[in-house]
Amino acid sequence: MDKSLELLFCFEEQPDWSQTELSQRLGLHKTIVHRILRTFCRHGVLVRSPVNKRYHLGLRVWELGNLVNQHQEFLEHARQVMARLAEDSGESVFLNSVVGFEGLVVLVQEGPQAVKVTYSAGRRVPLYAGASGKVLLSTFSAEQLQDFFTSVQLKPFTPATITDAETLRQDLERIRTQGYAYSIGELDEGVAALAVKLDTAAYPGTVGLSIGGPAFRFAGRVSELLRLLQAAAHALDHVK
Predict the structure, then answer these.
(1) Coil, strand or helix at 182
(2) Most buried one in 5, 131, 154, 221, CB count within 10 A?
(3) Domain residue ranges in the chain
(4) Which three-class secondary structure state does DSSP give residue 188?
């Protein structure tokens, strides 16, 4: 794999290469280089010119580059939507996705209040504790959920963490039915969160949007915060 990537990165240096040039550049036997080139050509990553027999990047790389650009455009739009939501709600806002059997904090927009919830982008979070994780877990199929429960130990983070599989299954079904997740103190004591999943094709995988803050500020405001959160999610769902 390393050698294959090194070969691909050679095309940053110049637009086309012969097999012999790549072999010399990488210090690899021609047989190995030929095998790598054949694989890349089969998948459209590289193309061999029928005229001069040299290799250049194929349309598959262009397609992947377009996907990256689309994802970046979505994230830029998400930052703007999240900034407005944080201002309107007064709480911190998070964009989260699924990585294996964990949640990943993709983007963070801190709230304007002095006392607030702060997680760093790139942080991994459990899918079974807290609204942001459970709204993502609720999208799992029956087979995926079975794999999840087989692989993940439901250890408690606080006294409010759900550690019983059947209770968690019931909670996930309730989240699917109502279309959002709400939690108090499941991952961090004294912290409340609301979360909804996004229905967008502009970002890969399963994505959710959540609001988090001190539980005392959520009291009596859940309906208001949910309305703001759903409006923000609707705006992101329509990003192309």
Answers:
(1) strand
(2) 131
(3) 2-57, 67-237
(4) coil
